[in-house]
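queue> pop job 88
queue> type: inverse folding (structure -> sequence)
queue> payload:
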């Protein structure tokens, strides 16, 4: 977020929430430091990790301003986030080419990640999914609990452990 008048920096401690599912989505952030995860819950109340946000990623409960967030976003590490009013950012996009490019590039990155994740989840086995994760999020492996990675990839923690072992034996 370039324009200093649009944003402020906030700290979110590990375990705290940037937004909760159902809360009004009035802000957008850029992660300056730390890792957060987006998640929802299935009908049985189990948490399903849908996103990881790390340094330089845009963060929002959804990408439509002023409607309820469609996911929870929780800090997995202590985080520093540059936060702005989502509506103000979007109104500035039309008049600020640099901001337009930043927002467009972040949305493009998120769209690419989501599409490649869907493809990996639908067509890939555990090894394919894990290799995809390593290529998309190489800096996260030792920063977050592996059970979040397993959930994100749609495999059990046991499957992930076996896959990691198999991969290390291939090297």
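queue> result:
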């Amino acid at each position: 977020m370039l324009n200093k008048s649009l944003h402020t920096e906030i700290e979110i401690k590990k375990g705290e929430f940037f937004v909760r599912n159902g809360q009004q989505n009035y802000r957008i952030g850029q992660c300056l430091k730390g890792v957060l995860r987006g998640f929802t819950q299935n009908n049985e109340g189990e948490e399903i990790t849908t996103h990881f946000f790390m340094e330089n990623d845009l963060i929002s409960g959804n990408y439509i301003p002023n409607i309820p967030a469609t996911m929870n976003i929780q800090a997995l590490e202590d985080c520093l986030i540059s936060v702005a009013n989502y509506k103000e950012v979007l109104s500035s996009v039309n008049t600020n080419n640099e901001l337009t490019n930043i927002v467009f590039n972040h949305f493009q990155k998120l769209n690419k990640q989501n599409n490649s994740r869907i493809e990996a989840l639908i067509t890939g086995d555990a090894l394919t999914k894990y290799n995809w994760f390593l290529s998309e999020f190489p800096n996260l492996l030792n920063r977050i609990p592996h059970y979040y990675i397993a959930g994100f990839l749609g495999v059990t923690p046991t499957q992930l452990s076996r896959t990691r072992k198999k991969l290390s034996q291939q090297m």
